[in-house]
Amino acid sequence: MNRLDHLEHLDKGLVDELAQVARETVRDELREQSRKRRRTAALYAASGAAALYAGAAVALAVGLALSLALPGWAAALITAALLVVAAVVLRNTARPSAGRVTPERLAEAERAGETPGTSYGVPSVPVVPPTGGAPPVPPVPPAVPPSPGTSATGPEAPHHRA
């Protein structure tokens, strides 16, 4: 069944014109929204670049201030260490930790019907070991038998008492 079969009594040209106007209106609205989003994205990128340069200027100022009391290499090393510490702190703040249980996560898990200690309904510890119930055995290097004519009581040979 054609989409327009129930509109047979209407003028075909009127329906086509109405559909064309609707398409153009939607297209214009989408263009306007994308134009606004492009402008916003460009402003965010510019602010990020400005913040990068500001951070570099602050790092330079810290390095120069430290170089008044210390040799230049020590001032640069201390400044780099401070920047690394700041980067690690920011990364750890931004990245959610799977092991950290917060009251918000507990409430969210209870609302979702999950038990604490699970993530998205999957237990954090496997219920059955992957080897079918037996604990995994670590690999052991093969034992080399002693060569003929050598004593089996060397420093690497096992010492057994009978």
Automatic annotation (TrEMBL):
Biased composition (Basic and acidic residues): 102-113
Transmembrane annotation, as ranges: 41-66, 72-90
Biased composition annotated in UniProt, kind: Pro residues: 126-148
Matching InterPro entries: MFS_trans_sf, Phage_holin_3_6
Keywords: Membrane, Transmembrane, Transmembrane helix
Segments of this protein annotated with the region Disordered: 96-162
Superkingdom assignment: Bacteria
Signal peptide per UniProt: none
Protein name, per record: Phage holin family protein
Organism expressing this protein natively: Streptomyces himalayensis subsp. aureolus
